[in-house]
Design goal:
Helices cover 0% and strands 49% of the residues. The protein is mainly β and 328 residues long.
């Protein structure tokens, strides 16, 4: 594999209707359009932070449109997911702090032009012991039709997976991913990204406080997980995302940096794309996506055929988009 054409765009420029933005997500639509969402407002945690969307058409990106905004409650980490039958879901968190998060969900039957009113994903699930549903990265559909949503808990810094065998109507929580906390210097692991390598064999990579991307594996469709273990990939304690391609390779977007000794956060620059042809055991052909002052972080990635579609935070001022073509 090698990289072909790369297209880079900003979803909006400096005339944005908010001062700050972060935590983008995207989904491909049958007509070739791309739908993206993110949270935006005065700053992260501010009461005016809402969920915004934009659509990439043949004419370019549409103006940002606010789709979820509950007065005086910060909104966080939207996740778009299109079910195989075409139903589109928008998950996001609300709460004055992470410890008070509640997962909300909206639906669209017309690819995001109109949305239902938001409702809690799971009634009564709120706060640091809840955290049900996708926390940053997209759900995946397993070989048997089960939807697996990557989830995590803060302030516990634990990870798990929510599983649904009825199209996302109801959810069953997996066991918490085992983690040897005696070996940690920081809080733990959060924000998994998932893939299935063969029927029932599911894997996750995770953000960590330990200077490395962690991994865990499941042999029973995501119900139970092996103890999380560090990979050779660096991690700056910031979000990552991954997608499995149609021919089995993996594409990972991340910041290849580590915290300085004694610290638990590292630089959120540069941002790179890497590929694996051996189920994530090794990574190669690193492609620089962005770098510079401030941050280029919190990527989201989806794929169709040999085309990769990526969004990420650009200096907390814009959401950047890149389309990368692969050559086999």
């Amino acid at each position: 594999m090698s990289y072909g054409d790369v297209i880079k765009e900003y979803i909006f420029e400096d005339d944005r209707p908010f001062l700050s933005c972060h935590a983008s997500t995207l989904e491909l639509l049958p007509d070739g359009h791309v739908l993206a969402a993110w949270f935006g407002g005065t700053k992260e945690k501010a009461p005016d932070v809402a969920i915004w969307v934009s659509r990439r058409t043949d004419a370019g990106w549409t103006a940002p449109l606010k789709v979820a905004d509950q007065d005086h409650i910060p909104h966080w980490n939207p996740v778009l997911f299109r079910r195989p039958d075409g139903e589109l879901f928008l998950y996001y968190k609300i709460g004055t702090s992470i410890e008070e998060w509640e997962t909300m969900v909206m639906r669209s039957s017309d690819d995001g032009y109109t949305w239902t009113a938001p409702v809690p994903l799971i009634a009564g699930d709120r706060g640091g012991r809840g955290g049900r549903g996708p926390v940053k990265n997209k759900p995946i559909v397993l070989h048997d039709g089960t939807i697996a949503a990557p989830a995590s808990l803060e302030p516990a810094w634990d990870a798990f997976v929510d599983l649904s065998d009825d199209g996302g109507e109801t959810w069953t929580r997996s066991e918490t991913v085992p983690l040897d906390r005696s070996a940690l210097t920081g809080k733990g692991i959060i924000q998994p990204t998932l893939w299935e390598s063969e029927p029932g064999v599911v894997h996750m990579l995770l953000r960590s406080t330990e200077g490395a991307i962690y991994r865990s594996d499941s042999q029973d469709g995501g119900k139970t997980w092996c103890p999380a273990y560090p990979t050779e990939l660096p991690n700056n304690n910031s979000g990552i995302d991954l997608v499995k391609l149609e021919y089995g390779a993996l594409a990972l977007v991340y910041n290849p940096t580590r915290p300085e000794p004694g610290k638990h956060k590292g630089p959120r620059t540069p941002l790179v794309l890497a590929l694996s042809r051996d189920n994530g055991l090794s990574w190669e052909q690193e492609l620089l996506l962005d770098e510079g002052e401030k941050q280029y972080s919190y990527p989201a990635i989806v794929a169709k055929g040999q085309e990769l579609y990526i969004t990420y935070t650009w200096k907390r001022e814009r959401i950047a988009f890149q389309r990368v073509s692969l050559e086999l």
